[in-house]
């Protein structure tokens, strides 16, 4: 950068160092040839050679560094692109696997619901069997109680009937051991 600035200063100095051009009026005609034209061409040649030398010395390194930085940027951008593509591929794989996972969960949930339904069915059947057994026991118990009460009632009726039949024979007396 410093050399480019120096080059610009030299170019400006060379242009200022030249003789000012004379403006000819219409009344006066310009001389046929300019005696300093050779010096002007020599000055231009020196300036062109100097600029060419400075450009050939500085521009290749400038362009090389600029090319290297651009290539480095391109390589980094390509790496970022590859990373992004890998992340996108991983995301796509997860999304596609998500459908399979959902179907798997649905299948598992269906199987689990079926198992739970079977378990509830079995539990219900056990409860019903238990209730039937309890009902059978209660019925049997009620039957025994009813039979006992019936026997007792029948015995009482038999006694009463016997008392009524024996009453005229015994004269209204109660027999020992009777209720």
Descriptive tags:
0% strand; single chain; mainly alpha; 179 residues; rod-shaped; 2 helices
Question: How would you characterize this protein structure?
Answer:
With 179 residues, the protein is mainly α. It has helices at 2-17, 37-170. Helix 1 packs antiparallel against helix 2. The model has no long low-confidence stretch (mean pLDDT 83).
Brief description of this entry?
Helices cover about 85% and strands about 0% of the residues. With about 180 residues, it is mainly α.
Topology, please?
Blueprint (H helix, E strand, L loop, with lengths): L1 H16 L19 H134 L9
Q: Main β-sheet, in a few words?
A: none
Q: What is the tally of helical segments?
A: 2
- Contiguous runs where pLDDT drops below 50 for at least 5 residues: none
Number of strands: 0
The helix/strand series, from N terminus to C terminus, equals: HH
Radius of gyration: 64 Å
Sheet-strand content, in percent, reads under 5%
Terminal Cα span:
141 Å
Helix-strand makeup class: mainly alpha
Helix content: over 70%
